[in-house]
Amino acid sequence: PMARRLARPLRDNWPSQRDELDSAALLALVEAAGSFDPDRKVRFSTFARMRIQGALRDVLRRMALRGWRADAGHAPFVGSLES
User: What is the pTM of this model?
Assistant: First the structure.
């Protein structure tokens, strides 16, 4: 439930990406379970929440890059600040 709850606001804003967002959240939860170390004195829910939020940010980042590649005219300009 926690993974889907964290993905819900994003799914509401990008319904076409619902499956991708859910998959990323659930996969991050599974990966968190596999890499969790209770000796670090951190609650699993806190650890998993950070991993899930990071995975969801990665999905949003990929979506933004795909969108800019498809519409090069509106892509952000990245260049040197030198004159």
Answer: 0.76
